[in-house]
Design a protein that fits this description.
Elements (H helix, E strand, L loop, with lengths): L1 H8 L2 E9 L5 E10 L6 E11 L2 H8 L9 H26 L8 E12 L1 H4 L9 E5 L2 H8 L3 E3 L2 H6 L8 H9 L6 E6 L2 E7 L7 H5 L3 E7 L2 H10 L10 H4 L5 H8 L19 H10 L7 H24 L6 E5 L6 H10 L4 E4 L10 H15 L19 E3 L3
This protein binds adenosine-5'-triphosphate (ATP) and ligand AH0.
Adenosine-5'-triphosphate binds next to α9.
Protein name: Anhydro-N-acetylmuramic acid kinase
Keywords: ATP-binding, Carbohydrate metabolism, Kinase, Nucleotide-binding, Transferase
Catalytic activity: 1,6-anhydro-N-acetyl-beta-muramate + ATP + H2O = N-acetyl-D-muramate 6-phosphate + ADP + H(+)
Length: 404
Amino acid sequence: MHRLAHLARQPSRRIIGLMSGTSLDGLDVALCRLHGHGTATRLELEHFATVPYEEDFRRRVRQVFAREQVSLEYLTLLHAWLGREHARMVLACLHEWQVAPAEVDLLASHGQTVYHAPAHQHQHPDFPGLNATLQLGDADHLAVGTGIITIGDFRQKHVAAGGEGAPLAAYGDFLLLSSPAEERLLLNLGGIANFTYLPRTTTDASSQHASAAFSTDTGPGNTLLDTVVRAHFPGHSYDEDGRLAAAGTVHATLLKELLAHPFFTAPLPKTTGPELFGPAYLQAAQAGTHTLGLPVEDLLATLVELSATGVARAARLALGEQPAVAVYASGGGAHNPVLMAALQRHLPACRFASTAALGVAPDAKEAILFALLANEAVAGQPLSMGAGRQRVPAVRMGKISLPD
Ligand SMILES: Nc1ncnc2c1ncn2[C@@H]1O[C@H](COP(=O)(O)OP(=O)(O)OP(=O)(O)O)[C@@H](O)[C@H]1O
Ligand SMILES: CC(=O)N[C@H]1[C@@H]2OC[C@@H](O2)[C@@H](O)[C@@H]1O[C@H](C)C(=O)O
């Protein structure tokens, strides 16, 4: 605790942010130097790596991932095992980068979301209106395994304060990427797609512009695309550069059926996950439109269109009929030219670029977010954002795990 108090007073901190997302492609590890805190934060990314998950690793996570019913024994074992595995991966990165654990101030661990249950999605009769979310990979294992003080389990505070536990991106995007020059959407195309809306900053009152920033999920990003590729091409996990989708044709009837889900018209902000946008949702829509035998290229083309339409609809809900803002993309889907082209078509008045144009590596952005949140937990203040229904809970997030 003395060490934490000391750290809080330092002008800068060296923090590793960890993110393991819904795509289960690997653990993102971002070693950051953070200067200051709050709106004065400045960040340097010193090192970044994605430690890929082996097939057997993914198999274990999939035993419980987004499943309504699982073995409680398996879940318990996985919680400890993931913490230990993530610690091992962090140590391997540090070894590679020739950085000693003692040279790192904090580890910020998101863990692995295994179930996301916002009230609108679970509708369980025993828990009406209750938002909940569960991340595995216990932070004590990371702290003890690496010797680095670890801040983990960020999402619970957000839920406790009235949010759905996600997206947390608004907190980091607001601190790092707000601009006096332009209105921005920070669009993350992961397994699930989400964006942060950032109005222009005004010169004086940062509190005023903070009042309108918020983030929301928009629907599937890559998750359904990956599901289809895995089912049709064993050993492959995604449609590289959208080549298969580019060769297909959008099936209008299937698209309409997929878009009929009330999630797409629900007010912002909202969150979702593969619990909803998974194989059962796709199968039901295909069965209902007699398209179970659709060629895989057409199916992928339709799902790209679904992801792009989800983003465009949410952008219109946030910004009106003809959004005309700067959009900065990140996440794996930003590497998919077919998806990016569809987005530009849906939002013709927006200017698209990668977050790289803002100095933030697009694959590292979510891991960086957790480093930022840990920095705020230790040295910052709760941040107030959003207005009305879009109010973002004013909280500092994360729990402290000490190595000894
Ligand atoms: N070159 C590429 N072409 C097409 N798709 C790609 C490419 N590179 C990555 N992707 C997609 O990006 C996915 C990984 O994205 P990312 O790592 O952002 O997801 P995540 O962080 O796990 O998800 P989330 O943000 O929902 O938690 C891959 O599974 C794949 O679908
Ligand atoms: C519950 C959960 O893990 N949600 C993730 C997921 O991946 C993308 C999207 O769905 C987003 O809402 C969130 O992650 C990012 C890092 C966030 O909280 O901003």
